[in-house]
Structures are given as structure tokens and as C-alpha cells.
UniProtKB/TrEMBL annotation, chain A:
GO terms for cellular component: cytoplasm; nucleus; proteasome core complex. PANTHER family: METALLOPROTEASE TLDD, PROTEASOME SUBUNIT BETA. Component of the proteasome, a multicatalytic proteinase complex which is characterized by its ability to cleave peptides with Arg, Phe, Tyr, Leu, and Glu adjacent to the leaving group at neutral or slightly basic pH. The proteasome has an ATP-dependent proteolytic activity. The proteasome is a multicatalytic proteinase complex which is characterized by its ability to cleave peptides with Arg, Phe, Tyr, Leu, and Glu adjacent to the leaving group at neutral or slightly basic pH. The proteasome has an ATP-dependent proteolytic activity. This subunit is involved in antigen processing to generate class I binding peptides. This is Proteasome subunit beta. It comes from the Eukaryota. Belongs to the peptidase T1B family. Signal peptide: none annotated. Pfam families: Proteasome (PF00227).
TrEMBL record, chain B:
It comes from Oryzias sinensis. Belongs to the peptidase T1B family. It is found in: Cytoplasm; Nucleus. It comes from the Eukaryota. The active site is at T19 (nucleophile). CDD domains: proteasome_beta_type_5 (cd03761). It catalyses: Cleavage of peptide bonds with very broad specificity. SUPFAM superfamilies: N-terminal nucleophile aminohydrolases (Ntn hydrolases). Coiled coil: none annotated. This is Proteasome subunit beta. PROSITE patterns: PROTEASOME_BETA_1, PROTEASOME_BETA_2. GO terms for cellular component: cytoplasm; nucleoplasm; proteasome core complex. It holds the Pfam family Proteasome.
Amino acid sequence: MRQGVVYINTNFSSVSGFDAERDSMRTCLLTFECCCVCDIQKLLGRRSHGSAGSPVPLPFPMAHGTTTLAFVFQGGVLAAADTRSSCSGLVACPASQKILPIHSHLVGTTSGTSADCALWKRILSRELRLYQLRNGRRLSTSGAAKLLSHMLHPFKGTELCVAATLCGWDDHTSLSGPSLFYVCSDGSRLQGTLFSVGSGSPYAYSILDQGVQWGLTVAEATSIAREAVYRATHRDAYSGNCVDVYHVTSQGWTRRTREDLKEEYYREKESRRQTHEAEKKML
Amino acid sequence: MFIKQFHTAERKIEFLHGTTTLAFKFEHGVIVAVDSRATAGSYIASQTVKKVIEINPYLLGTMAGGAADCSFWERLLARQCRIYELRNKERISVAAASKLLANMVYQYKGMGLSMGTMVCGWDKRGPGLYYVDSEGNRVCGDLFAVGSGSMYAYGVMDSGLRQDLTVDEACELGRRAIYQATFRDAYSGGQVNLYHVHSGGWTRISQEDVLMLHQKYRDQA
């Protein structure tokens, strides 16, 4: 057990540019270790003593089976996701929540293994709350992303699979406004204005690239986000069922009522049938 | 001696799976739009590949997969279509042309051919669009996109496609779909080649560089 502790500490002392958050980080990992010692030991042991050269099998052969997206605009950050949880061909849950609120001004979209995402989001919420209590202010989205990224780092190379986008509004004097970060269990941490993650992301990207700009109104942005998820669920087998839309502003996050995309499909089919019939009548 | 020659080094064949080609049917015919980039691994071999093959004045074929396979088999198809015309004194239908192609490549199934093509034309039954590939698939449909950038193109096409599009709107939709695919897909790029197939045959609408389109759409927004 002592060896485990030393391993984690040295890992983080070598990380530069991570000063104020380091103490809370170390505490976080130590407490985590106390809770499930054997698991960490096994995971770390697997990584360091694993048979040389044998690749760790990934949970999915391709991208995570989902469609989540988030983008920044003048009215804040908009996050949207489908609600299908699949387990290689079986729709395990048609009504899952892929956008998890972390605190009043931060939501995170999840992609990858649902269990991993849910757990790490809860751990992140706990750490951010502790930071807020200790320091009297909320941690920025950038800091939260860094925290999550560093928490996931010891599990690199294992079967942990988390690809999240953190969407938040920062209230600091120097950098206030909407903020969006992509954090992945393979170590990436990227800031951006538009991200889409999952097997349905290419379909969503083309819609988003066409329409997303800084100057959108809230209604326009919601409509584009919904359309992007709808198109992705239409073509991708691993995405489907309903769409969730969350909007983060300086007042906090708000959630739109969950919409079943089946209705949208039938509405569109009906309107196409009507225009087709109107045409035939004209001819 | 013979056995030694058999085990020569594997030659790298240039594949065009890294591509975006699309075609869709609408009231006034079929729109065919393709990019023009050829890649061999991460190397861009060419930015000016012609991925639309003009089989005859009223039939077009697109190219995805092995460039050699596509152009060879479609030239062979052109020959078969001409023979049909001469024998039967009427143009071949799109369904028959695609069936000829599918049957030709089916004989070589499993031998390493790589071809994913869309046969587009206008015949007695109106606009015709078939997807034929070297695995033996032959499907009729209203809308197809083939290649690594196809998923990006599908998103744009699905949201914009209606039966009552005008020719200009349909061309713009095809162009935009290819542009969006080249924006996100590293293996697609170069120029967007656009064709329109109507009752009088096919017409080449435009060839526009993707970077010019990027400027145009950015200024529009």
C-alpha cells in the first residue's frame, strides 16, 4: 500500500504548472485510494507489470456509441446529447442521462463507458465543492478540466474510457464568460468553441459547422443543436431515442424538456409528404 | 527461381477510400458531387483526381476505393452499354447498367478488388441511382454518400434534401455537403466537382476549389 501512495505522489510532483490545485488533487487521490485500495493496486500493477507489448483491449472497437455536442456562443454554452445507452447491439437504456450537471455553473457531457463517466463526474463534483469551500470561490472550467485530466491520468493504458466535454461559465475578474473544454481518458485536454464526441459526431459536425457562430440567439442555437443530434441519431445506430439540451449562462444551467426524436421524424415525414402532395396537385 | 519471384515485395496500391462522393435524386434529376483528393496513407498523392467517370452521355459513375479498379471496370461497363445500344436500338436503363457492373465484379469477389461506385443516370423511369460495390452490393436509393467523409456529407444532405428543390438549390446542397466533409475529413479535399443528370443527359455544373468555398461561406455567414 505504501508503494501505491508513493507512485501517485511522484507522478504529480513532476507535473508543472499545477500549484494551487495540487494539494486538493493529492488529497483526492489519497482518499480514493483508501476507499478501494485493491482496485487501484490491481490497475496500477496491471499497467506497470503488464506483459510487455500486449495491447490493452478497448471497450469499443470504434468511437464511443453516442452523440454529444457542445458549443460556445454569445448567450453562453449549449450542450446537447442523445439518450441511448447501447451495449454492443443491445439498447441497454433508451432514457439515460448523458449530460450531468457538476455544479450550478458547470455541466459535463459524457461519452465512453457510462459507469466510468458517472463515477468520475461525481468525484469531480466532490473535488470542486471542496475547492470552493477551501478557497471561497469556484474553480474555473479550465481548472476543473485540468483536475479531471490529472485524475484520469494514472489510469491511462487501462480500460477506463471517458470522453467528456466540460461546459461552464466562469466568473473571475480576468476571464469571465462561457468556456468549453474536452477531456479524454487518453490524456487529451483541449479548449475549444465547438466539440462533438461519439460515433454520431461526424453527422453532427457537418450541421454544426454550417450553422454555429458567435452571434446566434438562444433559440437559433437550440434549434441547431437539436437538428445536429437528430441527424446523427437518424444515421448512427448507436445514437437515438431522445435529445437533452442544457444551456449554461451566468445565472447557471437550465435544462430543456427532454424531446423524443421519433416525433420529429414523423413530423418531418409528414411535412415532406404534404409538400409532395401539394406539388402533385399543382401539376 | 519461380518460387522466389512469387514472393516479391507487396506493392502499395493507391486507394481512394479516403474520399467523399455523394449522389442524390430529386425532382429534376440526380446531383452528383465529389471531392478530388487521392491519398496514399498520410501522403496526398493528388488534389486533382477526376472521381466522376463519364460512362456515356447519359450515365455517370463515381469512384471510391481503388482508382484503377473503378476506372477499368467502368470503362468496361461503357463498352457493354454501347453494345447493348447497338443490339437493341435503345438506351440501356440505369438498373440494367448497374446490374451489368455488379455481375462483372461479383466474379472477382474476394480477390481483392476495391470499388464503391454510384451509377447515376436518367432513363424511361426517370432519375436512376444505384450503389454498386466490389463486395457484391447493389442497392437502389434516393441518396448515397461513399468514402471516409461520407458521414459528414450525410448530415448536411439529410437536413437539406427535399423533393421540391430547384436545380440551383440542389447543386448548392451537394456542394455544401462535400465542402463540410472536406472541412472535417483529412482524407478529402481539393476541388468539388458537380454534375447534374437530367432528361437530356448529364451536365457538368462546376468545379470549385474547397478553399475558395471556405472563403465564400465565411463571408456569407
